[in-house]
């Protein structure tokens, strides 16, 4: 029988194995580069046994920050033909080869958690990172707001690539001229666990548009048909801004304007409440239409410091429907697909964020979620994601963020 001690060792070994020297890849083969939010989770994992390595992970991520403040979602430190689309397709305009979009801003929150573990080791890093994190958050505030909620401009930005929330806006895109391209993801894992060709044509078409516009945010604002106000981005940014404010106050840094930005985001979060389904939801800003989806991002409200009786009822319902919550999409929806990526599977990282929020609010379901995540990993290993009904591991294996969740929270 595998013991907790063995699993801790396995998790540490996964982080070390995926370490490429200063940054960590999500998993060998499928994702050979540094991903933004994966790295922030990796840092939290490293902090449980090597605090310097944790800070190095975040420091490296911010070396890829663009002049306008954006921190890209992939940093291509070293070219690898095993992943598509690579640096040439993206044509990122930052100091290092990178993609042209961002990902959920969880770095400030992870930085604060790591700082809390060892303030002496962390202070210099926080002082150096603070203005960079501030600039990134301000970039969101400048370019991405809709009624105070934060928008994504590509399905990959929310990190929940093929969630049913994007189905409506994706259907409105005609990927004309996308041309021939060769997918690499389905060479590493079974295609039934990945997004479809319909999705990929549109992912690549959006990348081509961004590159053609040289990632100019003003032009993208005018031309990009995909602009969805998203609970992932809104809740993670709101939380990150609160953490930045707390860190700034503690270290006597310039926090001017942060309180106003937080108030704006609180309004934005409230604007994502969809009364029809009694849940936080994504809103297509081009049509004003709701996605009408209860997703795992809907449950990030507590992480953002927002309690919600309605969302609690949804959580209870969803957890009662599957063995290993929180599923990425409502298990009672006809669009639910327990093995297909962000259309049903459970993701340990989302459980961690949701769970942290629930624990901070002393929510009665907090312990249940942590125990379910623990059992999921104990029984099924460190997969990228899992079928929420029976725990079947899916996607990539020996996955950095699942190992990090084990070390920092579930294990
Ligand atoms: C997945 O996304 C990438 C594109 O960014 C992909 O499928 O190629 C998502 O699960 C995303 O949230 C994650 O950061 C990334 C690496 O683990 O993989």
From TrEMBL:
Domain of life where this protein originates: Bacteria
Keyword Cytoplasm applies: no
TM regions (residue ranges): none
Residues covered by the Mannosylglycerate hydrolase MGH1-like glycoside hydrolase domain: 31-402
UniProt entry keywords in alphabetical sequence: Glycosidase, Hydrolase
InterPro entries: 6-hairpin_glycosidase_sf, 6hp_glycosidase-like_sf, Glycoside_hydrolase_63, MGH1-like_GH
PANTHER family: MANNOSYL-OLIGOSACCHARIDE GLUCOSIDASE
Family: Belongs to the glycosyl hydrolase 63 family.
Name under which the protein is recorded: Mannosylglycerate hydrolase MGH1-like glycoside hydrolase domain-containing protein
Organism of this sequence: Maritalea porphyrae
Lineage per the UniProt record: Bacteria, Pseudomonadati, Pseudomonadota, Alphaproteobacteria, Hyphomicrobiales
């Amino acid at each position: 029988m595998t013991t907790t001690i063995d699993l801790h060792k396995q998790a540490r070994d996964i982080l070390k194995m995926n370490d490429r020297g200063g940054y960590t890849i999500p998993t060998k083969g499928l994702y050979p580069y540094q991903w933004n939010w994966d790295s922030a989770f990796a840092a939290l994992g490293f902090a449980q046994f090597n605090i310097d390595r944790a800070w190095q992970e975040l420091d490296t991520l911010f070396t890829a920050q663009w002049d306008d403040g954006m921190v890209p979602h992939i940093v291509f430190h070293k070219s690898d033909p095993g992943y598509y689309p690579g640096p040439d397709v993206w044509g990122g305009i930052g100091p290092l080869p990178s993609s042209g979009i961002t990902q959920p801003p969880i770095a400030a929150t992870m930085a604060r958690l790591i700082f809390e573990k060892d303030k002496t080791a962390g202070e210099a890093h926080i002082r150096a990172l603070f203005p960079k994190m501030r600039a990134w958050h301000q970039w969101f505030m400048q370019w991405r707001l809709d009624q105070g909620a934060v928008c994504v401009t590509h399905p990959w930005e929310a990190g929940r690539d093929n969630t049913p929330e994007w189905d409506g806006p994706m259907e409105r895109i005609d990927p004309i001229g996308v041309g021939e391209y060769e997918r690499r993801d389905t060479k590493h894992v079974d295609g039934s666990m990945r997004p479809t060709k319909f999705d990929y044509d549109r992912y690549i078409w959006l990348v081509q548009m961004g590159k053609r516009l040289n990632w100019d945010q003003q032009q993208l604002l005018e031309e990009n048909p995909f602009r969805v106000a998203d609970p992932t981005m809104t809740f993670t940014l709101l939380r990150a801004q609160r953490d930045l404010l707390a860190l700034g106050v503690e270290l006597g840094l310039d926090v001017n304007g942060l309180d106003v930005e937080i108030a704006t985001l609180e309004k934005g979060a409230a604007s994502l409440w969809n009364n029809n389904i009694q849940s936080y939801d994504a809103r297509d800003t081009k049509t004003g239409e709701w996605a009408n989806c209860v997703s795992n991002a809907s449950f990030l409200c507590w992480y953002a410091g927002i309690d919600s009786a309605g969302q609690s009822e949804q959580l209870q319902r969803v957890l009662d429907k599957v063995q290993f919550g929180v599923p990425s999409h409502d298990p009672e929806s006809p669009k639910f697909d327990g093995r297909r990526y962000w259309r049903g599977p459970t993701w340990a990282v989302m459980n961690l964020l949701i769970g942290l929020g629930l624990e901070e609010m002393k929510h009665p379901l907090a312990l249940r979620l942590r125990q379910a995540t623990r059992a999921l990993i104990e029984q099924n290993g460190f997969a990228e994601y899992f079928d929420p009904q029976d725990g079947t591991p899916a996607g990539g294996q020996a996955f950095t963020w699942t190992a990090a969740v084990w070390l920092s929270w579930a294990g």
